[in-house]
Amino acid sequence: MRYLPLTPEDRAEMLGVIGVSSVDELFSDVPEAARRAGLVDLPPHAGELEVERELSELAARNRAAGAGPFFCGAGAYRHHVPATVDHIIQRSEFLTSYTPYQPEIAQGTLQSLFEFQTQVAALTGLEVANASMYDGSTACAEAVMMAQRVTRRKRAVLCGGLHPHYATTTQTLAHAEGMDIVRQPAAVHPEDAVIGAIDAETACVVVQTPNVFGVAHDVSKIAEAAHAAGALLVVVTTEALAYGLLKSPGEMGADIAVAEGQSIGNGLNFGGPYVGLFACREKFVRMMPGRLAGETVDAEGRRGFVLTLSTREQHIRREKATSNICTNSGLCALAFTIHLTLLGEKGLRQLAAVNHATARDLRDALAAVPGVEILTDRFFNEFAVRLPRPAAGLVEELLEDGIVAGVPFSRLNPSAGMDEVLLVAATETTTPKDIAAFSAALQRRLAQ
């Protein structure tokens, strides 16, 4: 093939150096069931116009979150993103999806990352933050790896309220590191169980607040128990807007705080890209993964910005790297920073209060539907309900009514035995008309 420069002889020589007889041997660790036997069933090549037409038809099959009443949360939330955000991120001083390799010529980008880190540190109540991670789940996994480096222990306890996707992402990475992950069963109120699982071999305890069921709780007692055993406390938040109303992880004793920052400045985008937040105590800064932008002065005393504490293996010897994460979510982090700057502290708190009030209205409306049980007693903008029959089927039925009713917990954790549990969220984009339509349609479907 004209675009592949390697000859068969080149490939044979490379395989010989590696010590394998074929390319297939490189994939020996991939289970046979996960391998594709043949080529992907794709249509033959076509012209630009034909490809554009085909992709447009595929895109038209999607249903945008704004097309009707929408109550999905579970780690990704619909919020209003001001048009100013999109306008500013396109300015040449800032526009990049990547951290520059020559930072001295990209002062605008580095300053925006420095401001991002400052905002994340303030929101989480911790002293230092990095220039972002891929998303909340990978940030959670990196936090567990960091706890292993700090404590030199290999056991991590994942609370039963942790988002199942975050738990499985952590398990995947931890398996490669030889860590022992204790994943507790899903529970709406898992606080006592997680404290009982801490022992002298525990590197860290991972808790989420508000948890995957929407329960907001003070983790101070868990922090005390972890620290008494020499372990670290990792606090996870999937809804960054909650920082505007709830006590910060740092105030509750967290050593590391990670979060999904999508809900500030970033749309749902049908699943990504998103932006992971990562902050920790200053004494652990040299064990932190990712990149850090620092403030300095040049030879003439002028304020400037640099990349500092290069922790990745591309910059330093592999054995000294704290992580192999190879980038940060630069453009999404920039959108986060712009939106939060536009809001300011007062605006953030007001927006958070509106979210909570709207969720309470939704809670009251659903609680009035016969057969619906509210499981979450204290929440921010999301809560769990138990329905009289499996939630997944009801969600499909309500979709026929034009309502995206939420996320069945069985989609996140099919083996948890919680088929009747539905996670619902309300934000500032949710209207009283949306809530009325949801409750009326749910009551009608349950009565059938």
Compile the SSE list and pairings.
Layout: H1 8-18, H2 48-59, H3 83-89, H4 107-124, E1 128-129, H5 136-151, E2 155-158, H6 164-177, E3 180-183, H7 191-196, E4 202-208, H8 220-228, E5 232-237, E6 256-260, E7 276-280, E8 292-297, E9 303-308, H9 330-367, E10 373-374, E11 382-386, H10 391-400, E12 407-408, H11 409-412, E13 421-425, H12 432-447
Parallel strand pairs: 2-3, 2-4, 4-5, 5-6
Antiparallel strand pairs: 1-7, 6-7, 8-9, 10-11, 11-13, 12-13
Helix pairs in contact: 3-9, 4-9, 5-6, 9-12
Please characterize this protein's 3D structure.
The chain is an alpha/beta fold. It has 2 domains: 67-79 and 345-447, Alpha-Beta Complex (Aspartate Aminotransferase, domain 1); 83-339, Aspartate Aminotransferase, domain 2 (3-Layer(aba) Sandwich), CATH 3.40.640.10. Helices cover 36% and strands 13% of the residues. It is built from 12 helices and 13 strands. The strands form 3 sheets. The chain has a 7-stranded mixed sheet with strand order 1-7-6-5-4-2-3, sandwiched between helices. A 4-stranded antiparallel sheet has the order 10-11-13-12. Strands 8-9 form a two-stranded antiparallel ribbon. Strand 4 (202-208), helix 8 and strand 5 form a beta-alpha-beta unit. The longest helix is centred in the last third of the chain and has 38 residues, at 330-367. The chain is globular and about 70 Å long. It starts with 7 loop residues before the first helix and ends with a helix. The relative contact order is 0.14.
Spatial order of the strands forming the largest sheet: 1-7-6-5-4-2-3
Dominant shape: globular
* CATH topology group of the largest domain: Aspartate Aminotransferase, domain 2
The CATH class assignment of the largest domain is: Alpha Beta
Query: What's the structural domain tally?
Result: 2
Quantity of strands, as a count = 13
Average pLDDT: 93
Given as residue ranges, the uncertain stretches (5+ residues, pLDDT < 50) are none
Instruction: Describe the largest sheet.
Output: 7 strands, mixed
Annotation field: number of helices: 12
Helix percent reads 25-40%
Terminal CA distance reads 61 Å
Q: Please identify which CATH superfamily of the largest domain we are dealing with.
A: Type I PLP-dependent aspartate aminotransferase-like (Major domain)
Helix and strand content put the structural class at: alpha/beta
